[in-house]
Amino acid sequence: SQERSARLRRWYELMVENKEELARIITAENGKPLKEAQGEIVYSASFLEWFAEEARRIYGDVIPASAKDRRVLVLKQPVGVAAIITPWNFPSAMITRKVGAALAAGCTVVVKPAEDTPLSALALGELANQAGIPAGVYNVVPCSRQQTAAVGEVLCTDPLVSKISFTGSTATGKILLKHAAGTVKRVSMELGGHAPFIVFDSANADWAVAGALVSKYRNSGQTCVCANRFLVQKGIHDEFVEKFAKAIEKELHVGNGFDAKTTQGPLINEKAVEKVEKHIKDAVSQGASVVTGGKRHSLGKNFFEPTLLSNVTTKMLCTQEETFGPLAPVIKFETEAEAVAVANAANVGLAGYFYSQDPAQIWRVAEQLEVGMVGVNEGIISSVECPFGGVKESGLGREGSKYGIDEYLEIKYVCFGGL
């Protein structure tokens, strides 16, 4: 484990040394602003550092035996080959969050990066070689969009693979789960979210707007923990909407990710733009108002204006499914119970956010929200020390944190008799 720890540590150091180049690769592949890409590389590298440290803390157990002539031991051993299937929205961090844990546990990995963003995975491979990680331990299988389903199926059905870790859509996750069932593989899934962002009357409106801005529009709204439904209590509703609109117009700048003032890059592809348009059109046809934005940006291609809708209801598409784009729909509510009921009506539960200054309410709502991660008066909650993952149809298992390495370990019980 000491050797694994040292190699992971070296890999981390090389990522930090090459931060600028790695960030430029992300911006070129995925379009996110360079500053966000640099942030992703720091976050991404931190998982290698974290799991380099955790590699030496894989403790077993000694259990008191019921019979005098026995000793009972528990060993933790690597599960074996792990297939890692990752998305395009965080083309580096979604790899290291899984691979760091797998390698720390002693597994080897086969990474299938998203077809839109294979270069980040290959760049990590180059640095893994430089870090002295042995050939065959970190493997990358890039493939075209046409081949994605077939390659995914092979990774999930091959008996030599012991474990699947997937981040991506709920629909794809369900297909992979079916494939994995054939050989009863260990499975970790981090699937879609539909994060509620609740603003109660007691909230500090300025804090709530600042949190809403970063939670919603980071990566142009293309993260699985993005606020997707804004539920705002009637007493603070008008103030929040007005301040949120002003902040969007003043602080967000759509443009090329390599341009220093850009905060909003393009969406990943034409299909993503069409989904945002469809959600807006559906909402407006049912009576929603466009407060700001609402259409494709004059830059053309996959650029879209950051958009805020008010007078939104739970009947609209944008509140029933994840948009994955720069669209913030605001629903007005009256009571805490109503907000919690709307938030929990989704069949997924990854992240949830709420703003309140009432301590009793904070405890109640934090416990009642059916999500794996809760941000209270905070819009950005991801961090390497904290367990990342969801409940319901948002997934299985947790990544990062002291819990993340368990996903790659088997527990073996050894009974020593005849003593």
From TrEMBL:
GO CC annotations on file: mitochondrion
Localization of this protein: Mitochondrion
SUPFAM superfamilies to which the protein is assigned, alphabetical: ALDH-like
Main location class: mitochondrion
GO BP terms: gamma-aminobutyric acid catabolic process
Record's function text: Catalyzes one step in the degradation of the inhibitory neurotransmitter gamma-aminobutyric acid (GABA).
Descriptive protein name: Succinate-semialdehyde dehydrogenase
Protein species of origin: Melanocharis versteri
